[in-house]
Specification:
- The complex is a heterodimer of chains A (110) and B (112).
- With 110 residues, chain A is an all-beta fold.
- Chain A contains no helices and eleven strands.
- In chain A, a hairpin with a 2-residue loop joins β6 (56-59) and β7.
- The radius of gyration of chain A is 13 Å and the shape is globular.
- Helices cover 0% and strands 54% of the residues of chain B.
- Chain B is mostly beta strands and 112 residues long.
- The N and C termini of chain B lie far apart (37 Å).
- Classes of the chains: A mainly beta (110), B mainly beta (112).
- At the A-B interface, β5 and β10 of A face β5 and β10 of B.
């Protein structure tokens, strides 16, 4: 019940395309859903986050869509750029613990 | 504002040794959490400290321990190192226990 399932494991997108990463959770006690971006050799960096009382949040090219009834949330990267190539982790917070998805390796081809 | 800093950045140890990793949180942040990242297991929660007290613990053996000092700096210790302890150890800090966590660059531990 503490798991967050993330898909796909890897993703290749053309420059300018839309990257979509999906996550699902079981525990309804989760109350905060951040997305982290990690480049090789670096720690994860907070990208965008959402709380379950909101269905969508947009920051620049990054949008989180949240479906509380389905217990699913997704990250959309619009106009994907080669600089977006990184590993993306969804996460969920409950009981002061951050539970991570397994990560999606995104490659944006020029 | 300076980010989370971790020292050392890289460490090589042999089996059976022990190691201490250090984390300095963002100024004003009182909560520090530690995570282990490996290719096979992903990012796994180790423990969380707040006000010098361990508040939460992940599913790791007792060889993994930590502490937090009055200035919120934290250390984690791994005793009797095993090959499987090779990983990137990440520290994250947050202003309170429920605020967003910000990660440091990690300490890459290699156990030979």
């Amino acid at each position: 019940q503490q798991q967050v399932k993330q898909s796909p494991q890897s993703l290749i997108v053309q420059k300018g395309g839309i990257s979509i990463i999906n996550c699902a959770y079981e525990n309804t006690a989760f109350d905060y859903f951040p997305w982290y971006q990690q480049f090789p050799g670096k720690g994860p960096a907070l990208l965008i986050a959402i709380r379950p009382d909101v269905s969508e949040k947009k920051e620049g090219r990054f949008t989180i869509s949240f479906n509380k009834s389905a217990k699913q949330f997704s990250l959309h990267i619009m106009d994907s750029q080669p600089g977006d190539s990184a590993t993306y982790f969804c996460a969920a917070t409950g009981f002061q613990k951050l539970v991570f998805g397994t990560g999606t390796r995104l490659l944006v081809s020029p | 504002k300076a980010g989370v800093t971790q020292t050392p950045r890289y460490l090589i140890k042999t089996r059976g040794q022990q190691v201490t990793l250090s984390c300095s949180p963002i100024s004003g942040h009182r909560s520090v959490s530690w995570y282990q990242q490996t290719p096979g297991q992903g990012l796994q929660f180790l423990f969380e400290y707040f006000s010098e007290t361990q508040r939460n613990k992940g599913n790791f053996p007792g060889r993994f321990s930590g502490r937090q000092f009055s200035n919120s700096r934290s250390e984690m210790n791994v005793s009797t190192l095993e090959l499987g302890d090779s990983a990137l150890y990440l520290c994250a800090s947050s202003r309170t226990r429920t605020d967003t966590q910000y990660f440091g660059p990690g300490t890459r531990l290699t156990v030979l």
